[in-house]
Amino acid sequence: MSSQKEFTLQRLRDAFERLRAGKPERTKADGKVSIKRVNDEAGLSQGAIYYYKAYVEELRAEIRIIEAEREKRQVVDDMGLNLSIESKLRLERDREKRLKIEYRDQVKNLKQLSDKIIAENVSLAFRCRELQDELSRASAMKVAYISR
User: Fold this and answer.
1) DSSP letters spanning the chain
2) What b/e string do you get for 25-34 counting C-beta neighbours within 10 Å, with b at 16 or more?
3) What does the alpha-carbon distance between residue 134 and residue 38 come to, in Å, rounded to a whole number?
4) How far from 41 is each of 17, 53, 72, CA to CA, in Å?
5) Fewer Cβ close by (within 10 Å): the C or N end of the chain?
């Protein structure tokens, strides 16, 4: 392997370790780890990490382990809250209600935007028709003038 490839591979490994430690330098410190994030954290061009297929496979396995650990911590956290099943269900119901309201607002906003676009489209189509009529009249006047 050339020294440039080794250097880049080391940059990728260092980037992964920074992400795993929760101390990234180039990406958000939100605890998420992905192949794209490792690539971005290493400061490489988009998709450059995929030239290192063996490392990508190794990274995928590490990411699966990290995600499994995160899920275990979530279960432990949920159990640590000592919430009754009813309380958990209420929390979930409230979350779903909030999401439903947010989605309803998004649909309303998209409908308003759609209506505005349709109205503008109709207006433009009408103006286009007016201009076509003017062009037809102008063409007819030229034809009449030439024929005399």
Assistant:
1) --HHHHHHHHHHHHHHHHHHHT--SSS--SS---HHHHHHHTTPPTTGGGG-HHHHHHHHHHHHHHHHHHHHHHHHHHHHTT--HHHHHHHHHHHHHHHHHHHHHHHHHHHHHHHHHHHHHHHHHHHHHHHHHHHHHHHHHHHHHHH-
2) eebeeeeebe
3) 60
4) 10, 18, 26
5) C
pLDDT along the chain (148 residues), means of 10: 86 93 90 92 92 93 88 67 73 88 91 94 96 90 59
For 128, what's the count of Cα atoms within 13 Å in the CB-facing half-sphere?
A: 6
Q: Which residue has the tokens 């003017």?
A: 134
pLDDT value, residue 84:
73
